[in-house]
Amino acid sequence: MGLRALLMVFIVAGLIVADLRYNSLERTRSILDGLATPIYWLADIPAEITNWSESNVLSRGQLIEENDRLKRENLILSGRSQQIAALRAENTRLRALLNSTALLRNDVMIAELIGVSPDPARSEMVLNKGAGDGVYVGQPLIDAEGLLGQVVEVSQYNSRVLLITDVTHATPVQVNRNGVRAIAEGIGVLGALEIRHVAATTDIEEGDLLVSSGLGGRFPVGYPVARVSKVTRDPGHTFATIEASPVAALDRIRHVLLVFALNNPTP
Questions:
Q1: Which of 60, 111, 124, 209 pairs as cysteine with 176 (C-beta 3.0–4.6 A)?
Q2: Rounded percentage of the chain residues whose pLDDT exceeds 90
Q3: What Rg do the C-alpha atoms of the chain give, in angstroms?
Q4: What gap in Å lies between CA 210 and CA 177, rounded to an integer?
Q5: Do 174 and 182 contact (CB within 8 A), yes or no?
Q6: pLDDT (tens digit per residue) in 152-177
Q7: Cα–Cα distances in Å, from 228 out to 99, 145, 232, 243?
Q8: Residue 3: in which H helix or E strand, if any?
């Protein structure tokens, strides 16, 4: 047995020497390498599966966590976008309000709405300007479109305003088209006024713009008040039934202009 082993060693050594010198086993090695390739692939499969799992397969907990995070981020972004939209709209309203001052011959001051009357039968609101800012009882206020009402109560830092649609409020107006005078009275509804005691033969039609007439000295002349929305003439009645819609955005205002008349001190 020892001679056989020694003989095998000599044979293998001879083959190695022959291969090194004459490259006689190149074809054999090539065949053996080709046969061994599938074995290499099979041996590498577990490692490839592990790598793929680590890079592509997330646990259920990780997926839930990521989904929750994305929901929170989406909610935050949605809230911010809504705030941006609100700020943009407020900026537009303020620009319109400031642009309207170019048409006025009186001094004005911007005030912000901070409260409304809890009584649905009263059309009142509270502003963040008071006597310390120069606000006075009877002072008119407007928005970018037209007349809103007047100040009826003043404290040091706030003031209470009565809107033109309140049932106790009456505004002297005139038809902008022909100068016909009338009184626009509130009926307790933000979007409606009533023009009473107008003769059925008076030249007033739907679509006419009503502006403040200046009578009574409370409101300066020429402020848009309302637009006639309906005129009903009954042959059996002396007076016509006339309805009008305020041009000011009474139900959407946030900022208003307090108007300082020429005969009142400015702040």
A1: 209
A2: 32
A3: 44
A4: 9
A5: yes
A6: 999 999 999 999 999 999 999 999 88
A7: 25, 15, 11, 6
A8: helix 2-22
Least Cα distance to 171 among 239, 221, 101, 112 occurs for 221
Tokens 């800012």 locate to 133
Left if phi > 0, otherwise alpha if psi is -120 to 50, otherwise beta: which for 28? alpha
Mean pLDDT (the chain) is 77
**Phi, psi dihedral angles at 235 (to 5 degrees):** -55, -25
Pick from 252, 99, 79: nearest CA to 163: 252
Q: Is the dihedral of CA 222, 224, 227, 232 positive or negative?
A: negative
Q: Which two tokens stand for residue 38?
A: 């599938």
Q: What CATH number does the domain located at 107-267 have? A: 2.40.10.340
247, two tokens: 């041009």
Domain spans, the chain: 2-56, 107-267
Q: What is the pTM of this model?
A: 0.62
